């Protein structure tokens, strides 16, 4: 069982959900992350997500995937006390979308579970992929595997579901915590990134379609 220990109130402690995945300082990926942060600061997100000249696409996607994992981790960490077995008995994104968990290895047949349980499975699974040196090599010159793009797409598709759940089920808490601007900026960056490289199927984005169109229209 991978759930973190319960605090006396019966909810998991509100500290950050999973350990942050650090990109080693001094590495090329660290330089890329710094580049991403610098271009983000310019405020033009469409430009910020573009592949920097002369860079390897896989590496750019790897660095950003780690960054989005950390961002979502932190955002979800702020609302874990509101996302409980009783408040969210199913993993949903509004009344029309419900997610069942399967990772293809340990759990092959999708299981219905509560949102906190689902997100715990999901984030643990992503962490395992990111920590796998054969999938996400951190050393310079170590090639990315042939299936890297399909793994990255699956990770991003699943991370999207955490955004979708937060927006649909916990947005009032986000507003109360004054995290709204932070969440919107993070999600907008995420969406522009997956659109730039066509990483998530349009059908998968349906639960937040209106929001995606609204965020995109402000930047035309």
What this model shows, in words?
This is MOB1A kinase. With 220 residues, the protein is mostly helical. It has a single domain (28-217), classed as MOB kinase activator (Butyryl-CoA Dehydrogenase, subunit A, domain 3, Up-down Bundle), CATH 1.20.140. The protein is 51% helix and 2% strand. It is built from 8 helices and 2 strands; from the N terminus they run H-H-H-E-E-H-H-H-H-H. The chain has helices at 28-41, 45-48, 57-79, 115-131, 148-169, 171-176, 180-196, 209-217, and strands spanning 91-92, 98-99. A two-stranded antiparallel ribbon has the order 1-2. Strand 1 and strand 2 form a beta hairpin. It starts with 27 loop residues before the first helix and ends with a helix.
Principal-axes geometry comes out as globular
Helix content: 40-55%
CATH names the topology as Butyryl-CoA Dehydrogenase, subunit A, domain 3
Integer average pLDDT: 87
Beta-strand content estimate: under 5%
Figure out the total of helices.
8
Strand order of the largest sheet: 1-2
Given as residue ranges, the uncertain stretches (5+ residues, pLDDT < 50) are 1-16
The CATH class label is: Mainly Alpha
Say which CATH homologous superfamily is assigned: MOB kinase activator
InterPro entries: MOB_kinase_act_fam, MOB_kinase_act_sf
Region (Disordered): 1-24
Protein name: MOB1A kinase
Biased composition (Low complexity): 1-14
